[in-house]
Amino acid sequence: MGGGGQQTESSEPAKGDGVGPDGGRGGSAVYTWEEVQKHCHRSDQWLVIDRKVYNITQWAKRHPGGIRVISHFAGEDATEAFVAFHLDPNFVRKFLKPLLIGELAPTEPSQDHGKNAALVQDFQALRDRVEKEGLLRARPLFFSLYLGHILLLEALALGLLWVWGTSWSLTLLCSLMLATSQAQAGWLQHDYGHLSVCKKSVWNHKLHKFVIGHLKGASANWWNHRHFQHHAKPNIFRKDPDINSLHVFVLGDKQPVEYGIKKLKYMPYHHQHQYFFLIGPPLIVPVFFNIQIFRTMFSQRDWVDLAWAMSFYLRFFCCYYPFFGFFGSVALISFVRFLESHWFVWVTQMSHLPMEMDHERQQDWLTMQLSATCNIEQSTFNDWFSGHLNFQIEHHLFPTMPRHNYHLVAPLVRALCEKHGVPYQVKTLQKGMTDVVRSLKKSGDLWLDAYLHK
């Protein structure tokens, strides 16, 4: 699993071969950042964690978080991401030992690509304070009550039909309640997904399977492998799947110009802020995500997640078939997904789509996350409506932090940003949503200008 290679005739290891002076795969070799950065290809991947150099080329395929998320850091320093994603880094480090091939030379800085060392150190100090104050520990009662309110919504929706029958008004009310429960279950599975990244968190792992599988009919593994990439490299083209628009949209300031210069016109992009309302919010969950989910489960032979997903549909049809029949039940779940999809798209995109989008820039963790995220003002409604994802900045900086602690760490993050001149954006809910449309129009106009004049 570790590095290989042949020794030279001298007792010194060949540069970049990962072999120590004793001929083994130990960690006695030393490397420069220039040497590490050469190993950034699919068939040759090294990364650095706490100045230790690891060859992850073969092991990346077995990475529990998926091959892509760890491969995104090939040739880079992954220390901040490693700490951010793992609830218990010391537990995970034992899996790294066989992959160790050396360390950075003493003359090499700890940060690569000229990152701001003072900012990195200050953020690490903030994280140490967060851990010391227990802000990464979840309160089971909070999540139990949250799960209870989701189950109550589902029970009330079904109860209304049993008691008063299937009038149009009651069917619409039932649909709204089910869409609300689905949206809220989506935020809850999002919590459990982040809290179960460490296999020691068995109860979180099982609850995640239950919520996303049995309550939503989706796949935990599909979500994890997709969503962790988003957190690892938010708004980075080719690395963040959330901005892979499949040529339907052009996003940010650079992609539209690139498409325009190449004369690419898969869609009339200068009208994308208008057709977004037709194919964005209405279709992302009921069509795009559902196709992806089931294709992934079958292609990966993920029968456990498939069984959980099927349990959702079995329960749904058992509950609603007596009232609506088969085709009526299909229409009901389709309408519920349609409503949920609008909710999901606006909540997730208002904090990301209007922000910077670029190709890889090798920024430090705080700068990278802040350039790609913004917050929405706190209020009781905003907290509930967004599942506390109105605190996107804090969530991205501390992805394993339980949501009920975001508001506690927010002032500390804001102060750190002010100290280092990093923009910390907070918007109203209305502005966040309107900025989605404005950003699409701006990108479409940039495309048209480049398409016509460059």
Automatic annotation (TrEMBL):
Entry's localization field:
Membrane
Q: Which SMART domains match?
A: Cyt-b5
Give the transmembrane region(s).
Answer: 141-164, 275-293, 313-336
Biological processes, Gene Ontology terms:
fatty acid biosynthetic process
Tell me yes or no: is Acyltransferase among this UniProt entry's keywords: no
| One cellular-component annotation, GO | membrane
* Gene Ontology molecular-function annotations: oxidoreductase activity, acting on paired donors, with oxidation of a pair of donors resulting in the reduction of molecular oxygen to two molecules of water
| Name of the protein described by the UniProt record | Cytochrome b5 heme-binding domain-containing protein
Instruction: Look up and give the organism this protein is from.
Output: Oncorhynchus tshawytscha (Chinook salmon)
Gene label: LOC112237565
